Amino acid sequence: MYELVKKVVRLRVEGAEHVPPSGPLLLASNHLSITDSTFLPMAVARKVTFMAKAEYFTGRGPAGRFVSWFMSRDGQVAVDRDDKRAAVASLDTCLEVLQRGDAFAIYPEGTRSPDGRLYRGRTGVAWLALKSGAPVVPVAMFGTDRVLPPGSVIPRPARVRVVFGKPVQLAAIATDPENARERRAATEAIMAAIGGLSGQEYVPKYARA
């Protein structure tokens, strides 16, 4: 299935040399489409676990069912964004993935960009990075919003590109995962790295689903 989908979207991967082949790894990506969680793992030569909103596990239509299947089969971490306590608790589950030496991917914006711009990151990404000590590799997704535009239920053929950047150096910026200011500073550094790869206009406010 993966190879067929790769051919259909003519998946192009850049910067794969920045992705460690083993050990804990935190991938921090922009978020353009529900299909990001399908194509990003295809660009990595190792298993990737995601934090994904609960709705992705109950999708309908051809695209929704495919994403639901993908999420469920690989043990992705579902998060209920409407329940703050549950969302915070889910970070502990994400941390466990990193602590056992696996790769974990997160969308710091918290939801898909409503207009293609890059929105302010939520500090959970920094908490995970600082708590685990895992290298943070920024990721830029291109073209996934054309595969499945907002409101569409049928995927369309479009070229997809995934770009990985050099790990973000956080040591000089922040060290304490419990310090809110340090978490925010680390998050801003991560978002700047993502924006540097994607070229998206930055919006200094949270995106709304």
Automatic annotation (TrEMBL):
Pfam family for this entry, one: Acyltransferase
Claim: Transferase is one of the keywords in the record: yes
GO annotation terms (biological process): phosphatidic acid biosynthetic process
Keywords of the record: Acyltransferase, Transferase
InterPro entries: Plipid/glycerol_acylTrfase
Superkingdom of origin organism: Bacteria
GO terms assigned for molecular function: 1-acylglycerol-3-phosphate O-acyltransferase activity
Gene Ontology CC annotations of this record: plasma membrane
Domain Phospholipid/glycerol acyltransferase: 25-144
Name of this chain's protein: 1-acyl-sn-glycerol-3-phosphate acyltransferase
Organism: Actinoplanes italicus
Species lineage: Bacteria, Bacillati, Actinomycetota, Actinomycetes, Micromonosporales
